[in-house]
Amino acid sequence: MQKADSLQELHKIVAAIHPFSGEEWEHFAGIWQPVSYKRKEVLTTADETERYLYFVLEGVQRAFYTGENGQEATIVFTYPYSFSGIADSFLTQTPSLYFMETLTPSKLLRTSWQQLQQFIQQHPVGERWLRMATALALKGALERQTELLTCNAEQKFRKLLTRSPHMLQLVSHKYLASYLGIDASTFSKLLATVRL
Protein backbone atom coordinates (compact mmCIF):
# COMPACT_ATOMS: atom_id res chain seq x y z
CA MET A 1 0.00 0.00 0.00
CA GLN A 2 1.40 3.39 -1.02
CA LYS A 3 1.72 6.10 1.65
CA ALA A 4 -0.91 8.23 -0.13
CA ASP A 5 -3.40 5.33 0.01
CA SER A 6 -2.49 4.71 3.64
CA LEU A 7 -3.14 8.34 4.48
CA GLN A 8 -6.54 8.17 2.76
CA GLU A 9 -7.53 5.31 5.09
CA LEU A 10 -6.25 7.29 8.08
CA HIS A 11 -8.15 10.37 6.89
CA LYS A 12 -11.46 8.44 6.76
CA ILE A 13 -11.10 7.31 10.37
CA VAL A 14 -9.84 10.69 11.63
CA ALA A 15 -12.67 12.60 9.91
CA ALA A 16 -15.27 10.23 11.36
CA ILE A 17 -14.03 11.14 14.85
CA HIS A 18 -13.61 14.90 14.30
CA PRO A 19 -12.98 16.70 10.98
CA PHE A 20 -9.89 18.80 10.26
CA SER A 21 -9.56 21.68 7.83
CA GLY A 22 -7.36 21.13 4.77
CA GLU A 23 -4.35 22.80 6.39
CA GLU A 24 -4.84 20.95 9.66
CA TRP A 25 -5.09 17.64 7.84
CA GLU A 26 -1.93 18.33 5.80
CA HIS A 27 0.02 18.98 9.00
CA PHE A 28 -1.52 15.97 10.75
CA ALA A 29 -0.82 13.66 7.80
CA GLY A 30 2.81 14.83 7.85
CA ILE A 31 3.49 13.50 11.35
CA TRP A 32 2.84 9.84 10.39
CA GLN A 33 5.57 7.51 9.12
CA PRO A 34 5.10 4.02 7.62
CA VAL A 35 6.66 1.11 9.51
CA SER A 36 6.64 -2.66 8.96
CA TYR A 37 7.05 -5.52 11.41
CA LYS A 38 7.42 -9.27 11.11
CA ARG A 39 5.15 -11.77 12.85
CA LYS A 40 5.53 -11.95 16.67
CA GLU A 41 7.54 -8.75 17.06
CA VAL A 42 7.10 -6.93 20.36
CA LEU A 43 6.19 -3.27 19.86
CA THR A 44 5.86 -2.36 23.53
CA THR A 45 6.92 -4.18 26.69
CA ALA A 46 5.47 -3.96 30.17
CA ASP A 47 7.27 -1.31 32.26
CA GLU A 48 8.14 0.63 29.08
CA THR A 49 6.37 3.91 28.30
CA GLU A 50 4.48 3.77 25.00
CA ARG A 51 6.17 6.22 22.64
CA TYR A 52 3.96 5.74 19.58
CA LEU A 53 0.40 5.85 18.40
CA TYR A 54 -0.12 3.45 15.52
CA PHE A 55 -2.67 3.19 12.72
CA VAL A 56 -3.01 -0.35 11.37
CA LEU A 57 -2.87 -0.84 7.60
CA GLU A 58 -2.21 -4.60 7.42
CA GLY A 59 -1.95 -7.39 9.96
CA VAL A 60 -3.22 -8.18 13.44
CA GLN A 61 -1.71 -7.13 16.75
CA ARG A 62 -2.62 -7.85 20.35
CA ALA A 63 -2.13 -6.20 23.72
CA PHE A 64 -1.79 -8.59 26.63
CA TYR A 65 -1.06 -8.71 30.34
CA THR A 66 1.24 -11.28 31.92
CA GLY A 67 0.38 -12.26 35.49
CA GLU A 68 2.84 -13.21 38.21
CA ASN A 69 2.29 -16.88 37.34
CA GLY A 70 3.26 -16.20 33.71
CA GLN A 71 -0.29 -16.66 32.42
CA GLU A 72 -1.20 -14.24 29.62
CA ALA A 73 -4.52 -12.40 29.34
CA THR A 74 -5.26 -10.89 25.93
CA ILE A 75 -6.75 -7.43 26.39
CA VAL A 76 -7.41 -6.25 22.83
CA PHE A 77 -6.75 -7.03 19.18
CA THR A 78 -6.13 -4.37 16.56
CA TYR A 79 -6.40 -4.76 12.80
CA PRO A 80 -7.09 -2.61 9.70
CA TYR A 81 -8.18 0.17 9.96
CA SER A 82 -7.88 0.97 13.65
CA PHE A 83 -5.55 2.75 16.01
CA SER A 84 -3.12 0.65 18.01
CA GLY A 85 -0.61 0.91 20.82
CA ILE A 86 -0.90 0.89 24.59
CA ALA A 87 -3.30 3.83 24.84
CA ASP A 88 -3.18 4.54 28.58
CA SER A 89 0.63 4.53 28.63
CA PHE A 90 0.77 6.72 25.52
CA LEU A 91 -1.74 9.27 26.80
CA THR A 92 -0.28 9.52 30.32
CA GLN A 93 3.36 8.91 29.34
CA THR A 94 3.71 6.43 32.20
CA PRO A 95 5.07 2.87 32.12
CA SER A 96 2.78 0.29 30.55
CA LEU A 97 1.31 -2.68 32.39
CA TYR A 98 0.87 -4.45 29.05
CA PHE A 99 2.78 -5.85 26.11
CA MET A 100 1.89 -5.13 22.47
CA GLU A 101 2.96 -7.58 19.78
CA THR A 102 2.26 -8.35 16.16
CA LEU A 103 0.49 -11.66 15.54
CA THR A 104 0.98 -11.47 11.77
CA PRO A 105 3.30 -9.45 9.53
CA SER A 106 2.07 -5.88 9.96
CA LYS A 107 2.22 -2.57 8.15
CA LEU A 108 1.38 0.47 10.22
CA LEU A 109 1.62 4.22 10.28
CA ARG A 110 3.00 5.66 13.49
CA THR A 111 3.48 9.01 15.13
CA SER A 112 5.33 9.83 18.32
CA TRP A 113 4.05 11.48 21.49
CA GLN A 114 6.23 14.52 20.76
CA GLN A 115 4.93 14.88 17.18
CA LEU A 116 1.32 14.65 18.35
CA GLN A 117 1.92 17.20 21.11
CA GLN A 118 3.51 19.64 18.65
CA PHE A 119 0.51 19.23 16.34
CA ILE A 120 -1.91 19.89 19.22
CA GLN A 121 0.00 23.01 20.28
CA GLN A 122 -0.24 24.42 16.75
CA HIS A 123 -3.80 23.23 16.04
CA PRO A 124 -6.30 23.22 18.95
CA VAL A 125 -8.59 20.94 16.89
CA GLY A 126 -6.03 18.20 17.57
CA GLU A 127 -6.88 18.25 21.26
CA ARG A 128 -10.61 18.02 20.49
CA TRP A 129 -9.93 15.13 18.12
CA LEU A 130 -7.79 13.32 20.71
CA ARG A 131 -10.44 13.84 23.40
CA MET A 132 -13.16 12.38 21.13
CA ALA A 133 -10.93 9.44 20.12
CA THR A 134 -10.18 8.74 23.79
CA ALA A 135 -13.89 8.94 24.69
CA LEU A 136 -14.75 6.43 21.94
CA ALA A 137 -11.99 4.08 23.13
CA LEU A 138 -13.29 4.35 26.71
CA LYS A 139 -16.83 3.62 25.52
CA GLY A 140 -15.60 0.47 23.76
CA ALA A 141 -13.57 -0.63 26.80
CA LEU A 142 -16.59 -0.23 29.10
CA GLU A 143 -18.83 -2.18 26.72
CA ARG A 144 -16.26 -4.97 26.62
CA GLN A 145 -15.93 -4.98 30.42
CA THR A 146 -19.72 -5.30 30.71
CA GLU A 147 -19.68 -8.27 28.31
CA LEU A 148 -16.93 -9.99 30.29
CA LEU A 149 -18.84 -9.55 33.56
CA THR A 150 -22.38 -10.32 32.43
CA CYS A 151 -22.22 -12.77 29.51
CA ASN A 152 -21.71 -16.51 29.70
CA ALA A 153 -19.14 -18.26 27.49
CA GLU A 154 -21.56 -18.92 24.64
CA GLN A 155 -22.84 -15.34 24.63
CA LYS A 156 -19.28 -13.98 24.51
CA PHE A 157 -18.43 -16.38 21.69
CA ARG A 158 -21.53 -15.36 19.70
CA LYS A 159 -20.70 -11.66 20.13
CA LEU A 160 -17.19 -12.34 18.78
CA LEU A 161 -18.62 -14.19 15.78
CA THR A 162 -21.07 -11.37 15.10
CA ARG A 163 -18.57 -8.52 15.54
CA SER A 164 -15.36 -10.00 14.12
CA PRO A 165 -15.86 -13.39 12.43
CA HIS A 166 -12.67 -12.97 10.38
CA MET A 167 -10.62 -13.22 13.58
CA LEU A 168 -11.21 -17.00 13.69
CA GLN A 169 -8.99 -17.37 10.61
CA LEU A 170 -6.40 -14.75 11.59
CA VAL A 171 -5.69 -15.36 15.26
CA SER A 172 -4.70 -18.40 17.30
CA HIS A 173 -7.71 -19.80 19.11
CA LYS A 174 -5.81 -19.76 22.42
CA TYR A 175 -5.55 -15.95 22.13
CA LEU A 176 -9.25 -15.66 21.27
CA ALA A 177 -10.16 -17.82 24.26
CA SER A 178 -8.00 -15.61 26.49
CA TYR A 179 -9.64 -12.49 25.04
CA LEU A 180 -13.09 -13.91 25.85
CA GLY A 181 -12.02 -14.97 29.33
CA ILE A 182 -12.78 -18.67 28.72
CA ASP A 183 -10.55 -21.73 28.69
CA ALA A 184 -9.30 -23.24 25.45
CA SER A 185 -11.38 -26.43 25.76
CA THR A 186 -14.60 -24.44 26.16
CA PHE A 187 -13.63 -22.36 23.13
CA SER A 188 -13.09 -25.54 21.07
CA LYS A 189 -16.50 -26.92 22.09
CA LEU A 190 -18.20 -23.64 21.16
CA LEU A 191 -16.37 -23.56 17.84
CA ALA A 192 -17.74 -27.02 17.03
CA THR A 193 -21.34 -26.35 18.11
CA VAL A 194 -22.28 -22.66 17.76
CA ARG A 195 -23.59 -21.42 14.43
CA LEU A 196 -24.95 -18.00 13.59
UniProtKB/TrEMBL annotation:
<dbReference type="InterPro" id="IPR000595">
    <property type="entry name" value="cNMP-bd_dom"/>
</dbReference>
<feature type="domain" description="Cyclic nucleotide-binding">
    <location>
        <begin position="35"/>
        <end position="123"/>
    </location>
</feature>
<dbReference type="InterPro" id="IPR018490">
    <property type="entry name" value="cNMP-bd_dom_sf"/>
</dbReference>
<dbReference type="InterPro" id="IPR014710">
    <property type="entry name" value="RmlC-like_jellyroll"/>
</dbReference>
<protein>
    <submittedName>
        <fullName>Cyclic nucleotide-binding protein</fullName>
    </submittedName>
</protein>
<dbReference type="Pfam" id="PF00027">
    <property type="entry name" value="cNMP_binding"/>
</dbReference>
